[in-house]
Automatic annotation (TrEMBL):
Enzyme class: hydrolase
EC number of this enzyme: 3.1.3.90
Domain called Endonuclease/exonuclease/phosphatase: residue spans: 17-264
GO terms of molecular function: hydrolase activity
Name used for this protein in its record: Maltose 6'-phosphate phosphatase
Amino acid sequence: MKLLTLNAHAWMEENQHDKLKQLAAFIDEQQFDVIALQEVNQSMEETPLSPDDLGAYYSADPEVVIKRDNYAYVLNGLLSNAYHWTWAPAHVGFAKYDEGLAILSKTPITATVNEYVSSLQDYDNYRSRKIVGIQTVVDGVQAWFVSGHYNWWNDEESFRGLWDRTTKVLNSFAPTPVFMMGDFNNAAEVRGEGYDYVLQSGWSDTYPNAAVRDEGHTVIKAIAGWESNAEPLRIDFIFSNKAAQVQSSTVVLNGKTGPVVSDHFGVAVELEL
């Protein structure tokens, strides 16, 4: 099972179309089974697509309207073999986008989850956070794969509350395996905050359990939300609710393994359940 998570920073990158093509080529090369994306934007003013345009799209919310420049839709159209996919918005991003979360899957989607995990559900406030996920079968195993983009530990809408609501939703999927993937905005290097809180709640980080792994850092400079950062951080994770045999955990799309396509690097994991 090959998984990828990436904060795409969609439509905010210089040379964005070139980077989209590079990301699509990397996905074609690596053949991930499931891909979780965050900061997946579409222009609020863009033209809506018709259902016939959407390909193997599985709606997580019948009220969601997919626009022509939806990043996940455009990316999927660049792939040699299109994936099954879903997307849902969480809030307004950068004053002009519907900012959301997406999951792409090589295998058909059988169910979705699309839930606010913040107490705040104000679409105009970026602190309104959701999780979006799919159920599918990979390597003969039925599992859930969920994408999330979280607030900081000391935010007024704090990570702790977001994670408590997340686990309430995800625990309802037991005993099915669940992979929680995304940008957690809580550094693994910091003790007593979000990363430790996730582990204490019973979830397993695939990174330290990997037989082969690298430094793991997905942010190495100051970026949006981490404007004063001056050190490498590991803030993008793939957590599992069950023990897994993790062959490798690799930072990708970092200029070494794949091109840089976002202000975050991605995390790719190979594992068996």
